[in-house]
Write a structure and sequence with these properties.
The protein has 5 helices and 5 strands; from the N terminus they run E-H-E-H-E-H-E-H-E-H. Helix 1 packs across helix 5 and helix 2 packs parallel to helix 3. With 134 residues, it is α/β, with parallel strands linked by helices. Helices cover 46% and strands 19% of the residues. 30% of the residues are buried. Keywords: Phosphoprotein. One of its GO terms (biological process) is phosphorelay signal transduction system. InterPro entries: CheY-like_superfamily, Sig_transdc_resp-reg_receiver, TCS_response_regulator.
Length: 134
């Protein structure tokens, strides 16, 4: 895996942010995570910070103010970010959500696992995929 990876998680649940960070640091202490609790704030900041280019995004579907679908669409409109890999990171196992987000440009769909031990391999798989295809 690449020596340093910068991930952005857009998720309104603080507990999920902490679990995500813990899992990423278990995978590699060199992974940097940046968090936004709201899609609206994330999109605004990403537009403002013109030099910021993360390696990947993880976006929750169910958030107040701006949901994950809208957030994904807005990120894909930002020219420098349109090709950055995106994984939807959600509790929804609805095949319709999976299909819609894939059609909107998401590269992967990760269901928030009840177990930390189940989450980590899914994150590793996505990170390896983006490294191989990046």
């Amino acid at each position: 895996m690449k020596s340093t990876i910068t991930c952005v998680l857009i998720d309104d649940d603080i507990d999920d942010q902490e679990i995500f960070l813990y899992a990423m640091h278990e995978i590699s202490p060199d992974i940097t995570c940046r968090f936004f609790s709201d899609g609206d704030v994330a999109v605004r900041k990403l537009k403002e910070e013109k030099d910021f280019l993360p390696d990947c995004f993880f976006i929750d579907l169910n958030m107040p103010r701006m949901d994950g679908r809208t957030c994904l669409a807005e990120i894909k409109k930002i020219d420098r970010l349109k090709d950055v890999p995106v994984a939807i990171y959600t509790t929804s196992a609805d095949p319709k959500d999976m299909e819609e987000t894939r059609n909107a440009g998401a590269d992967d769909y990760i269901i928030k696992e009840a177990s930390f031990d189940d989450l980590k391999p899914r994150l590793v798989s996505f990170l390896q995929h983006i490294e191989e295809n990046g």
